[in-house]
Recover the amino acids of this structure.
């Protein structure tokens, strides 16, 4: 009985520590980067934000004359996801060590789900079967909502699982592009695949914590993937590629 009692107490103590870690915004955050590494990461994020602003302006000019309202809405959702992700990433990674950094971490990790989902909205707009389109929208955004909720309410937990979820969600979405391969220019397909490869390769550096400039390299691959996906969507919007 004493052994059982001690085991239960240990379990309760461990549970309480996990609970406090979830809600304690004063807990120390691991940020083992030198000043020069932080400056390198700053440069990547500045480039990313400049790209985002110019990308939104260019895409808005392309969307304005379109008669396809659904495509306009879906591309607008993508642009919101793009701005949200790049801005929250910059805020989190460049914010000084403080309780606010933990809050920004939640937003940053949640925004990744939004970016993945919003990236595939212009492709879902091209699906002709209403039932299939609805099923895709429900599955895509329910997964996004679930993943973002976990990141917002349970920060720091299931990080490795979330990384796998990001990759699976992204590559599953690419199957939608492959299904439309016959009605899309080859460039669009290759841009989407190239973006997926860039994100996937970047994960290697994200996990390679001992490598100097690891965080900046990881974000460089992320930005490369975002740029490739943007030009794929820009091609669809600017040329009005509609399914036959």
């Amino acid at each position: 009985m004493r052994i059982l009692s001690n085991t239960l107490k240990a379990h309760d103590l461990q549970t309480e520590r996990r609970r406090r870690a979830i809600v304690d915004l004063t807990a120390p955050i691991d940020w083992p980067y030198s000043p020069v590494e932080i400056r390198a990461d700053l440069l990547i994020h500045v480039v990313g934000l400049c790209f985002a602003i110019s990308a939104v302006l260019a895409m808005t000019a392309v969307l304005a004359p379109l008669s396809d309202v659904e495509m306009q809405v879906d591309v607008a959702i993508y642009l919101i996801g793009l701005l949200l992700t790049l801005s929250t990433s910059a805020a989190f990674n460049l914010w000084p060590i403080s309780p606010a950094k933990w809050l920004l971490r939640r937003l940053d990790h949640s925004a990744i789900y939004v970016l993945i989902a919003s990236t595939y909205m212009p492709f879902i707009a091209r699906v002709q079967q209403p039932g299939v389109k609805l099923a895709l929208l429900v599955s895509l955004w329910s997964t996004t909502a679930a993943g973002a909720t976990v990141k917002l309410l349970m920060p720091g937990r299931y990080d490795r699982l979330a990384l796998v979820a990001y990759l699976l969600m992204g590559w599953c979405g690419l199957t939608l592009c492959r299904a439309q391969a016959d009605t899309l220019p080859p460039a669009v397909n290759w841009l989407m695949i190239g973006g997926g490869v860039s994100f996937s390769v970047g994960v290697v550096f994200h996990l390679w914590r001992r490598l100097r400039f690891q965080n900046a390299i990881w974000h460089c691959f992320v930005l490369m993937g975002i740029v490739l996906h943007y030009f794929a969507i820009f091609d669809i919007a600017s040329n009005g590629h509609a399914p036959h």
Notes: The chain has one domain: 41-239.
